[in-house]
Amino acid sequence: MFTLYIQGLHALDVTKNAKDAEAISVNRSVIDFPIEPTAEAVKFVGRWLDINKLRVSEPNATIGPRHPMVDPDDTRTDGVLVASPHSNATHLLAITCVAIPKLGPDPEIFLFHAGFDAPETMTDPTRVAGFLAFLYPLSEAANLRERLGSVDYVSKT
Predict the structure, then answer these.
(1) How many CA atoms lie within 13 A of 47 on its CB side?
(2) CA distance 41 to 44
């Protein structure tokens, strides 16, 4: 569903514990990811998974919120599983977070991309595909619009 890269965690404000306790509710929670403070950058990946297609090595009545996950390339990471509390839920959001090497020379970088079309569309160069992307800071921002034209959606009807 999405990938978020953050470089420069030191630039983010640390939330106060008392404030966290007030903010937690059935609609909002705090999820901790164990990352070393010396990490140069981190990568969050959100995957939308069909509950009925999950393969769980040691099933029990409830799983999560932290659950070991294995990617198709055999990379193992702990994921946080977030699902609807309703009994008719068919999907869940699995979020992983790992430390990664520095992304570039800027002290802070925030890169987000998401909203991809189906793989058969994204991998076919003859088909129109879409996605959402955001980068901060944006080098040469003044020249970007001139080079790319509008990056906004324009209806053809």
Answers:
(1) 15
(2) 10
Q: Compute φ and ψ for 86, nearest 5 degrees.
A: -80, 145
Helical segments of the chain, H only? 17-23, 119-122, 141-148
Structure tokens at 44: 């969050």
Consecutive sets of 10 residues in the chain, 157 residues long: mean pLDDT of each? Answer: 90 64 63 83 92 73 70 83 84 91 91 87 87 79 64 57
Q: What are phi and psi of 66, to 5 degrees?
A: -90, 130
Residue with tokens 């599983």, as numbered in its chain = 81
Other beta carbons within 10 angstroms of residue 122's beta carbon come to 13
Place of tokens 């998974």: 49
CA distance 27 to 149: 40
pTM higher than 0.70: yes
Specify the residue for token string 């569309």: 121
Residue 131, Cβ neighbours under 10 Å: how many? 11
Q: How many CA atoms are closer than 13 Å to the CA of 142, on its beta-carbon side?
A: 0
